[in-house]
Specification:
Elements (H helix, E strand, L loop, with lengths): L10 H5 L2 H17 L10 H7 L4 H12 L3 H18 L8 H8 L4 H12 L3 H8 L2
Helix pairs in contact: 2-4, 3-4, 5-6
Amino acid sequence: MNEKNDKEIPAYRTRLKSERSDRLYVQILEELTRNKRYRDPAFTARQMAEILHTNTRYISAAIANCTGGNYNMMVNKFRLRDACRMMQSPRYAHLTTEEIGLLAGFSSRQAFYLAFSRVYDITPRAYRLGLKP
């Protein structure tokens, strides 16, 4: 089992039944989006687990089972979506890309640029400059 795709699935992921996993995933999505908790850079999977009366392993398992990703990837997806919308909106034209990243929930400019570049293969600044007519 040398290849990355041949890795064994961690036991905690297989212990969580698919119906429970799906339900927990929906609860996670609702909790993140209802109050835009993803915009809080200090909001953690541990806090999510406490709110949903579960543990972080089940949070991780539900997200991994439903998306193939992890908690941070999911949170950053929401943040990046909001950041892109803000960069496209004239309402936020007076803000720098760093300010937009912070408003979207990233803890620093570096975290924003790294996450953005990984997903879009371009810097936020270059993305924003490409939007201008």
